Amino acid sequence: MCIRYRSTPIGPYDEIVLVPGAFAHPPNADIPAPTFLSDRRFTRIFVSHEDALRIGREMLGTRKEMATFNLFSVPVPLDFLTLFAPSICERRIDEDGVPVGDEEWVRTRFSGFLWASMTGINGTPNRVQSPVFPDLQDLKINTVLYTTGTMRIAAE
Question: InterPro entries annotated for this entry (predicted)?
Answer without folding.
Answer: ADC_dom_sf
